[in-house]
TrEMBL record:
Name the UniProt record assigns to this protein: Major facilitator superfamily (MFS) profile domain-containing protein
Stretches with biased composition (Polar residues): 46-55
Annotated CDD domains: MFS_Azr1_MDR_like (cd17502)
Subcellular location: Membrane
GO molecular function: transmembrane transporter activity
Signal peptide stretch: none
PANTHER family given in the database record: MAJOR FACILITATOR SUPERFAMILY, MULTIDRUG TRANSPORTER, PUTATIVE (AFU_ORTHOLOGUE AFUA_8G00940)-RELATED
Source organism per UniProt: Hymenoscyphus albidus
Length: 609
C-alpha cells in the first residue's frame, strides 16, 4: 500500500513540475487533496494539521462505498463515525480529575436516589396519608430509568456526550426539585418519574465520557474509583434517608441533589471534553434525526418494560401472583416485547437496540453477569439492614451504621479491581473471583442467628462487600474492550437495563421467599401470636402488637425468613460465576499497544500530507 502511494506521489510531483509556475500552488494543493483521499482510511495523527484533518474527514464521509451502501439500503445519510475512529487527545492532570469528580458525584446521587427513600417512606405516607402509594415512590423512579435506557444509548451515539449528559442531569435535578417541593403524593410520584428519566442517561454518560477522556488500558482504574465511590449511594441511601428523616425532614433526601448537581454542571461546562458521538459532515434534518432515534421502538419498549416490572413490584403483597392483574400484565409484556423485537429486527442496525449488537457473545454474558450479580447485591442490601433492625433491635440509623463494613470493603474491592485490571490488562479473572466470593459470603450470611455476635456479621460483610467491588465494573470493562466504539453507548445502555431488571426480579423473588417463610415460621416459633396482625404492622413495629414474652419467638421467625433470602443471593452469585467466564479473556494492555502500533505505522504516510 505504501509503495503504491509512493509511486502515486512521485507521479504527481512530476506532473506538477511540468505545470506552469502560475498554477504550481494550486497543483500542490490538489496533489495533497488526492493523497488525503487515498489515505482517508487511516486516522489522522497528532501531527496532522487542522485543515488536513478536515479534508480527510470530508473524503471519508463522501467515500464511494458509503454512498453506494446508502443508495442501495435506502437508509438516510446517518452520521459517519469519523471522530470515534480517530486518535483522541485524552485529558490529563487536574482536568481529568475534575471531570471524574463531577460525573462520579452525579452517578453517586443517581444511585443514592434508588434507596434513600426507603427509610423516609413512613414519614411521607404519614404526611400525605398515602399508604396505598408506597410502591410508587420507588417504582416510579426505577420504571422510568429502565424504560429510557435504550433511548439514552441512541442519544449518546449521535449527539455530543457532554451536553447530552448535562441535559440528563438537568432533568434529574428538575425532578428532584419537584420531589422536594411536593405538596401531595401525586406530585412526589411525578417528580420521581422525571428524576428517573433524567437519571437513566447518567451512568451511560459517565461511560461515554470516560471512553474519550482516558486510554482503554487506564479506564478500569478510573472506573474502579468512580464506580466504587458512586456505588456507595446504593448502600448509604437508607442510612442518609434515616438520618434526614429522624433529625431534619424527608425533603432533604431530594434537596441534597441540587447543590452537588449544580457543581457538576459548572465543572463540565467549563472543561472541553472530546466528543464520543458519531459525527457527519452535513447536519441531519429533523426527519433524519427522529428516524435514527427509533421513536416507534421506544413507544413499544417503554410500555413493555412497565408491564414487566410493575407485576414484579406488586406481586405477592399488593396483588396475589395468580390475580388477573398480575397475569394480565405479564401477558401484555410478553406480547409487547415480541412486537418490539420484530420491529427491531426490521430496523436492523438503525434500531434503538440493534439485535446484531445484542447477539455478540461478550454482550450476552456481560449482561447476564450484571443481572445476576446486581440481584445478589440488592438482596443483601435490602434485607441485611432489616435483620439488624428486627433481630438486633437497632434503630434505622444504627442499622445503616452496622452495614458500613459492606460499604468500606466494597470501595476497597472496587479500587483493587481497577488497579489490577490496569496493571495486568485482564478483567474476567476478577469477575470470576468476585462472583465466587459473593456466593460464599451470601451463604455465610444465611447462618446468622439472634445469638450471633458482632464478629460474624462484620467478617461476612467484609467478604461480601469486597467481592462485589471486584465484580461490579468488570462487565462494563468487557464491552468497552470488545465492542466497537460507535456501538458502545447502545451496548452499555443494555447493560444498565439488565442491571435494573436484575435488581427488580431478585428483590421481588426475595420478597416472595421472605413472605412464604415468615408465616410458617411464626406458627412454629410463636404460635400464640396473631400472624396476620404481625404482618400487617410491618417488620419493625411488631413489638407494639405482640406481648413482650412472645418477642423472642417472633424474632426467631423473622431471622429464619430474612436469612432464607440470602440463599437466593448465593444462588444468583453462583450463576453469575458461571456466566462471567463467557465475557472473554481480552487484555486491555495488548489492545492499547495495538492502537499505538496502528497509529505509528500510519505516521510516516501522514507526515507527507
Amino acid at each position: 500500500m505504501k509503495e503504491a502511494m509512493k509511486d502515486s506521489t512521485e507521479a504527481e510531483v512530476k506532473e506538477n513540475q511540468n505545470s506552469s509556475s502560475d498554477s504550481s500552488a494550486k497543483s500542490t494543493k490538489s496533489a495533497k487533496s488526492k493523497k488525503s483521499t487515498k489515505s482517508a482510511s487511516k486516522p489522522p495523527m497528532t501531527g496532522t494539521t487542522q485543515n488536513d484533518t478536515a479534508t480527510i474527514r470530508t473524503e471519508e464521509i463522501q467515500s464511494t462505498g458509503e454512498a453506494i451502501f446508502r443508495a442501495v439500503s435506502g437508509t438516510p445519510a446517518a452520521p459517519v463515525a469519523a471522530k470515534t475512529d480517530q486518535p483522541i487527545v485524552y485529558l490529563t492532570g487536574m482536568k481529568l480529575y475534575l471531570v471524574l469528580l463531577g460525573v462520579g458525584l452525579v452517578v453517586f446521587l443517581m444511585m443514592l436516589d434508588q434507596t434513600i427513600v426507603v427509610t423516609a417512606i413512613p414519614r411521607i405516607t404519614a404526611e400525605f396519608q398515602s399508604t396505598s402509594d408506597i410502591g410508587w415512590y420507588g417504582s416510579a423512579y426505577m420504571l422510568t430509568i429502565a424504560a429510557f435506557q435504550p433511548l439514552m444509548g441512541k442519544l449518546y451515539q449521535y449527539y455530543n456526550s457532554k451536553w447530552t449528559f448535562l441535559v440528563g442531569l438537568a432533568i434529574f435535578e428538575f425532578g428532584s426539585l419537584i420531589c422536594a417541593l411536593a405538596n401531595s403524593s401525586s406530585m412526589l410520584i411525578i417528580g420521581r418519574a422525571i428524576s428517573g428519566a433524567g437519571g437513566s442517561g447518567l451512568v451511560i454518560g459517565f461511560l461515554a465520557i470516560l471512553s474519550v477522556t482516558a486510554a482503554v488500558d487506564k479506564r478500569p482504574y478510573y472506573m474502579g474509583i468512580v464506580m466504587g465511590f458512586s456505588s456507595l449511594g446504593l448502600v448509604l441511601g437508607p442510612v442518609l434517608g434515616g438520618i434526614f428523616t429522624e433529625h431534619a425532614t424527608w425533603r432533604w433526601c431530594f434537596w441534597l441533589n441540587l447543590p452537588f448537581g449544580g457543581v457538576t454542571m459548572l465543572i463540565l461546562a467549563l472543561i472541553n471534553i472530546p466528543n464520543a458521538a458519531e459525527v457527519s459532515e452535513k447536519k441531519a434534518t429533523w426527519k433524519e434525526q427522529l428516524n435514527r432515534l427509533d421513536l416507534p421502538g421506544f413507544a413499544l419498549f417503554g410500555p413493555a418494560i412497565i408491564m414487566l416490572l410493575l407485576p414484579l413490584e406488586w406481586g405477592g403483597h399488593k396483588y396475589d401472583w395468580k390475580s388477573p392483574t398480575i397475569i394480565g400484565m405479564f401477558c401484555g409484556a410478553v406480547v409487547m416485547i415480541a412486537i418490539f423485537l420484530f420491529w427491531e429486527k426490521f430496523r436492523g442496525m438503525d434500531a434503538m437496540i440493534p439485535l446484531p449488537v445484542l447477539k455478540q457473545k461478550v454482550v450476552i454474558f456481560a449482561a447476564t453477569t450484571m443481572t445476576l450479580s446486581q440481584g445478589s447485591l440488592l438482596v443483601i442490601t435490602f434485607y441485611l439492614p432489616i435483620w439488624f433492625q428486627v433481630v438486633k433491635q437497632a434503630s434505622p440509623t444504627m442499622g445503616g451504621v452496622y452495614y458500613l463494613p459492606s460499604v468500606g470493603s466494597q470501595v476497597v474491592g472496587s479500587f483493587i479491581a481497577g488497579a489490577l485490571t490496569t496493571r495486568f490488562g485482564f478483567y474476567t479473572p476478577w469477575a470470576v473471583l468476585g462472583c465466587a466470593l459473593t456466593s460464599i459470603a451470601s451463604g455465610l450470611l444465611s447462618t446468622l442467628s439472634p445469638g450471633s455476635g458482632t464478629a460474624p456479621w462484620v467478617i461476612f460483610q467484609l467478604i461480601s462487600g469486597f467481592s462485589r467491588g471486584l465484580t461490579m465494573q468488570q462487565p462494563l470493562t468487557a464491552i468497552q474492550a470488545a465492542v466497537p466504539k460507535k456501538e458502545f453507548p447502545v451496548a452499555s445502555a443494555f447493560l444498565m437495563f439488565a442491571q435494573i431488571l436484575g435488581g427488580s426480579i431478585f428483590i421481588s423473588l426475595a420478597q416472595t421467599i421472605f413472605s412464604n417463610q415468615l408465616k410458617p415460621a411464626l406458627a412454629l416459633f410463636a404460635p400464640e401470636v396473631d400472624a396476620a396482625r404481625v404482618l400487617e404492622v410491618g417488620t419493625t413495629a411488631f413489638r407494639t402488637v405482640v406481648a413482650e414474652g412472645s418477642w423472642p419467638g417472633v424474632i426467631q421467625a423473622y431471622n429464619k425468613a430474612i436469612t432464607a433470602t440470602f440463599y437466593l443471593g448465593a444462588g444468583a452469585a453462583a450463576a453469575a460465576f458461571c456466566a462471567s467466564f463467557g465475557m472473554g479473556w481480552g487484555n486491555l494492555i495488548k489492545i492499547r499497544q495495538a492502537e499505538i502500533a496502528a497509529q505509528t505505522a500510519a505516521a510516516p504516510t501522514e507526515e507527507k500530507v
